[in-house]
Protein 1
Amino acid sequence: MDITTSNGGISIRLPLKSGIFLNGRYRVVASLGSGGFGITYLALDTARNDRKVAIKEFFPKNCTREGKEIVFTEEPEKTFQRIAEFIEEAKMITTVEDKRIVKVLDYFLENNTAYYVMEYVEGKTLKEHIKLHGPPGTREAIELIKEIALGLKAIHDRGILHGDLKPSNIMINSEGVKIMDFGAASFTNTIYTMTHGKIISWSYSSPERFHNQTIITLQSDIYSLGGILFFIVSGEDPIPAPEREKGIALPIPPVSYKIRRIIKKAMALEPFQRYPTVNHFLKALKSFF
């Protein structure tokens, strides 16, 4: 259960109960967690021998549930637009074919809202992994960020920006890494506006994402990629961009000069000072091999 307050009132987001079926085939097992725009469930696909799947339900904060249906508090036109954007997010991800990207298997409308179904990935998030095991050695760190960068390249190759790349949105297990959660995804060179409570990750979002009416480019994701490398080698979140814009320096971790140089360039405050593309970032990593 997720409780939020709005305009002096209390909004309770109740997850669907275990055993409920969605789209006539997906049986909800449990809630995996919630974010600003929805709840994610573990479910079984009864049409595929009870295969485990993850289902994301569009259920923004300040909305409630009556029975199974979501009750929105805004104008119907705005609700329709936001649901359409959620489905568009799912369609966007289906165009990306790469082993490092969580696959979207299905999407549908039900319960006055929208859902999309993803492959269920066992393992821990990169954030959990580093917090549990500590920062890895240089070679392992470079291999790890290389795999994440290759996944990001596959996204960019389809003309898509992830928009919210951070350690908690990357799964890691014995098979490698999986980039997930495309809730802030958009097409490249989109004019970014601070509407609908757009997603901002305090330590990993680029400076331009904190400003309204900004054209978001590939360099926004590259800033986040640099932040992830910072986290991998230090075990700490980098200083948020707004604080850096006030003059607080980014304390580069005490690692090799090459890694420090990559972090510094990827996380430059000005987009034009960062790597132009993920390919350029990958080229910088090649010097380690």
Protein 2
Amino acid sequence: MFKTGLRTSSAQPRVAIIGGGIIGLSIAFELAFRRGVRVTLFDTRECGRGASWAAAGMIAPAFEAAAEAGVHPRLFDLCLESAQLWPRFSADIESVSGLPSGFEPAPALAVATDAGEAAHLQAIGEVLAARGVAYKALGAEDVCRLEPALSREVLSGLELETDTRVDNRRTVTALLTALTANPRVTFVNTPAPLKSRGGRVVLEGHDAIVAAAGWETAVIKVEEQGGLYSLVNWDTALDDIDCHAGQMLSVAAGAGAPRRVVRAGHVYLVPRGGQVVIGATMEPDRVIDEPEADVIEALRAEGIKLCPA
């Protein structure tokens, strides 16, 4: 966040949010509904689309942060606290919008189909046990009983009470419905006219600026002495945001399809709206607008291997 140093004409503060994905929309919701702050939300594209619309919607502090090599030592704490906020957040969205938030608290199922995946699950379990976080260790028969359609090659599993899911398309739809009806919120579909004054980034009429554009933060421009320069020049930490592409596919949820999120190594199965989302690749430094047929076919094959049904 950048504090502009400019006061608005009213005693009521106004905050500019640049980026209308699920993060920007959630910040706007917090400010407008819970804190009574006026908000201007800038995005040159349709809000709530892009990765916010395409993502599988997993809330996965344990599987993705508890025992991952190379991550920040406090990442698990951050993810766990974030996951704990979802029940109240989703209830507030539903109360204000009158629409379902898409949050589903059913615990995820993480399974292992080889020794490497089993070791990873063991490491997750050890971290959770040390922190007093609830989970259930499962044998192959337990996994089969919970999700009979999964492969008989499954060796073991964990039922992760911390890891849930959200239908992100419902979430952004509900957020947009609530925000567009709130007179404190203004949507602007042009770039924010940021300027540099005395080495600080300012936006006329606003008290603070929140950059919520993810990896596209570098594209945000600031005017200085007649030229336009990337916002990262005013906070180089923003340049550390990496771009990762991801590809996935959806198939019809037939009889016996998983009823909950299933994780196995880098593969996941997520039930959503009569379909099962199969993912996903993680491709650093790539921007992909269209799926690639060979990648999608490989993902489909991995999904079939995990869940032959």
Protein 3
Amino acid sequence: MNIVGHQKIIKFLKNSIRNKRLCQSYLFCGPEHIGKKTTAIYFAASLLCNSQDFPCEQCESCRQVFQGKHPDVCCVSKIDDKEISVDQVRKVKRATNLAPFSGSSKIVIIEEADSLTISAANSLLKLLEDAPPNVFMILLARGFGSLPVTLRSRCQILRFLPPSLEELSCFLKKEFNLSLIDAQKISNLSLNLPGLAIELAQNKEEGFKNREDLMEKFIFFLSERDNLENKFQLANLILKFDTKQTLFFLLQFIRDLILIKLKLNPSIALEKKKLLDLSEKYSKTELYFFTNQILRTQSWLSRHINKRLLIENLVMSDFV
């Protein structure tokens, strides 16, 4: 299994297994596409592997974990884009009370733990407090600010940071047989987030074209600040595709406008003059404010909330 970056975290987790100094609950924090789930699966395989050089990736246990079929690994995520419910947590509690099916431990991976309902978080807290000694919980979240303090205090918190441009570019060049220029371009476009970079590399030409088309539309819709129709068209554009991903690209675009104002090089391959002309219509304070508004909107998207109202509220901001 290829994990780009996070080698200090991997080393820490493997040493914890070797030295038998494991926590029962971990909280992996970091942006989407950074590799939290991949690392969680790698950790689960390491816990269940019988080889001394774990995970061996060859034994039946490792293969089952990496294929998502191991009976002692339970993954919990949102259903139909709704918050994680208390019923889902109760099912996990019932499963953890049973003995492991084939391994020595049970592992529970909770994706987007920051989207737990209040009642689900309270139920999970009880599970963290009373879990059997052979049960390990791994919570994945974009940040820990939206998680109750009581939950955070019972977890070993591990913060995931993007790998360096050089590390990610070398991985993409080797894995997808890319030129160094294309690998660096993809790394920049993905803001050094491995998951997103891999998606772009798998369909390079279409990925580049779609991104450039999207950025051109951002320029068009943001160029006339007082045009109400443009604002609603921008909202429709964000809602037309994967909303979270389009918001991420919009965030990257605003970041590039800030870089232009600071006389630094942007990450996107658009004509620099277009970005410069657009950046002059906004102050740095306004761009910082809009960045925070996008981040707040991304956070709210993990909740069960009307997407259209949320996105329209974002684009109707006085600073857009």
